[in-house]
Design a protein that fits this description.
heterodimer, A: 116 residues, mainly beta, seven-stranded mixed β-sheet, B: six-stranded mixed β-sheet
């Protein structure tokens, strides 16, 4: 169990550029979540996958945001035409959901995005 | 919709003193409640979770929380603060215990030597 990893840890970009973040979940975890955390706030839910299926998207996830989880392993979060308001910490979490149980979400270290 | 409110964005306690971080929840169904800790420039680490099995939940690092339905509260406590407890603490709720978390705004805990 090597934990959830996220790359890159920091990303600085100019407004209007596209960025992509990667999340590698804990091996064999079937659920993967994305959250966004702005300064002084708690994390806010963006979207989540069960295996490769994207089951829910928050209204926070505008059409400039897209997430994928091909083959149910790692996931990518892409932001197109970045805006200064996209500056935040993007957190990924994974969990193992078993039938009839509750899952526990394990978080990665996050990717801090700064849009200039 | 579910929500949590954390009273006090900053709490300072002396080393060795009692730590009390407050969390009140709002939920239309029996909630699943969580406390996470976040150290600077790190992700969130689960301290403990309430899943209706027992109202007093013990977690890691000596923390515990008590679920009080009548007060809609899930306050986090630790009998004796340690310098290493300085961090940001988040209370969170989910509907069924196996879906998205809704977080509070966090409480920054400072330990005074």
């Amino acid at each position: 169990d090597t934990g959830v990893s996220q790359n890159p840890r920091h990303k600085i970009t100019k407004r209007g550029q596209n960025v992509t973040f990667r999340c590698d979940p804990i091996s064999e975890h079937n659920r993967l979540y994305w959250y966004r955390q702005t300064l002084g706030q708690g994390p806010e839910f963006l979207t989540y996958f069960q295996n490769e299926a994207q089951l829910e998207k928050s209204r926070l996830l505008s059409d400039r945001f897209s997430a994928e989880r091909p083959k149910g392993s790692f996931s990518t979060l892409e932001i197109q035409r970045t805006e200064q308001g996209d500056s935040a910490m993007y957190l990924c979490a994974s969990s193992l959901l078993v039938w009839g149980g509750q899952d526990t979400q394990y978080f990665g270290p996050g990717t801090r995005l700064t849009v200039l | 919709a579910q929500s949590v409110t954390q009273l006090g964005s900053h709490v300072s306690v002396s080393e060795g003193a009692l730590v009390l971080l407050r969390c009140n929840y709002s939920s239309s169904v029996p909630p699943y409640l969580f406390w996470y800790v976040q150290y600077p420039n790190q992700g969130l680490q689960l301290l403990l979770k309430y899943t209706s099995a027992a109202t007093l939940v013990k977690g890691i690092n000596g923390f515990e929380a008590e679920f009080k339905k009548s007060e809609t509260s899930f306050h986090l406590t630790k009998p004796s603060a340690h310098m290493s407890d300085a961090a940001e603490y988040f209370c969170a709720v989910s509907v069924s215990g196996n879906e998205k978390l809704t977080f509070g705004t966090g409480t920054r805990l400072t330990i005074i030597p």
